[in-house]
Amino acid sequence: MNIKARVFAILLMISMLLVTACNDNQANGDANGSGDNNDVYKLKIATALTESDPIYQGLVALKESVEEKTNGEVVFEIFGGGSLGEDSDIIEQAKVGANVAVLTDAGRLAEMVHEIGILSAPYLVDSYEEANTVVQSELFKGWEQKLADEHNLQVLSFNWYQGDRHLLTNKKIEKPEDLKGIQMRTAGSPISLETVSAMGASPVGLAWAEVYPGLQQGVIDAAEAHHSATFGANLQEVIGYITKTSHFQLLTGLVTSAGWMESLPEEYQDIIYEESIKAAEVASNNIVKMSADFEQKLIDAGVEVNEVDIEPFKKATEGVYDKFDGYQDLRKEINKILGK
Predict the structure, then answer these.
(1) Contact between residue 219 and residue 225 where contact means Cβ atoms under 8 Å apart
(2) Entry's PANTHER family (predicted)?
(3) Parallel, antiparallel, or unpaired for β 241-244 and 304-307?
């Protein structure tokens, strides 16, 4: 081989090595949600909600505002309908630093921070305003810090209100005793299961995406949910009655990896926190405003909406607080925050 050929071969080999190294670096950057070339940070957001839900639309508004304010250097990708997996799986990924986030309830987070689970307790608060007051308190901020310090989970905002939850059945319910023998789907958290059991039904932990076929095929007899989720999942096609018990005021949080957040420039972190809280407030207020519309749509679809005296249901679930260490005292502390 002459000298020119040798030089050409050496240069070609060096070029190939450089391309391989760049590709490896880019792949590593994408795996962590960021790339070295343009410092683009990507976050995958998971939710069980569908595109028609006002809370899902709030996530879209959050995506747009964050991308605009960071000049496209922070990019959110939204995966609805549970397409990214179960909440618990996403949480585990976030704990080890993956660039994922999930809109989840406090009951699931109680596995890490016991106290936060009280937000999923029955009849703790009576409205979105009360729930929002609790999650803006110093008490809640302490729980947030514990999640970050001990479990690498960062709350971006916890004021995503999805509405008050009611009983979805195929028989008319007037009182807790009417629930005896009914297999009712609820979230899989211990406090949700305990609450449904206390009301008189047999609780079944089931993924939200499985509720429609579960009711259709008789795997479960009933479920409990808020109006926007009920309508969004077309459950009006497989239920006959909604009993308005308002046993839960469903407040959810957008939770991601604390490590991933810390990898972002501080100005981007501030933007995400601020825009997340703003988007949640707008979406939550839309839920409140649209609740009557969702109810009318369910009625128009043939569902009978049953107004009942909720006092017997409150009395039936009072003992739930005694099942969880410290919750009675925490309830008193929260009542003080609310001025009750």
Answers:
(1) no
(2) C4-DICARBOXYLATE-BINDING PROTEIN (PTHR33376:SF3), PTHR33376
(3) parallel
Number of residues assigned to the chain: 340
Q: Which residue's structure tokens are 């490590």?
A: 259
SS3 content of the chain, % helix, strand, coil (to 5): 55, 20, 25
Residue 314, exposed/middle/buried by CB under 10 A (0-12, 13-18, 19+)? middle
pLDDT tens by residue, the chain, 340 residues = 444 444 334 443 444 433 334 334 433 444 445 544 467 999 999 999 989 889 999 999 999 999 999 999 999 999 999 899 989 999 999 999 999 999 999 989 999 999 999 999 999 999 999 999 999 999 999 999 999 999 999 999 999 999 999 999 999 999 999 999 999 999 888 999 999 999 999 999 888 889 999 999 999 999 999 999 999 999 999 999 999 999 999 999 999 999 999 999 999 999 999 999 999 999 999 999 999 999 999 999 999 999 999 999 999 999 999 999 999 999 999 999 999 9
Q: What is the pTM of this model?
A: 0.82
Residue 187 CA, chain-centre distance (Å), reads: 11
CA distances from 192 to 132, 133, 223, 309 (A): 20, 22, 12, 21
Asked if residues 68 and 62 have their Cβ atoms less than 8 Å apart, the reply is: no
- To 10 degrees, the CA torsion angle through 207, 212, 218, 220? 40
Residue pair 158/253 in contact by the 8 Å Cβ criterion: yes
End-to-end CA distance of the chain: 91
Name residue 141's amino acid: K
If we measure between CA atoms, which residue out of 253, 294, 79, 45 comes closest to residue 165? Answer: 294
Neighbour count for residue 336 (Cβ, 10 Å):
10
| Pairwise CA distance, residues 209 & 87, whole Å | 12
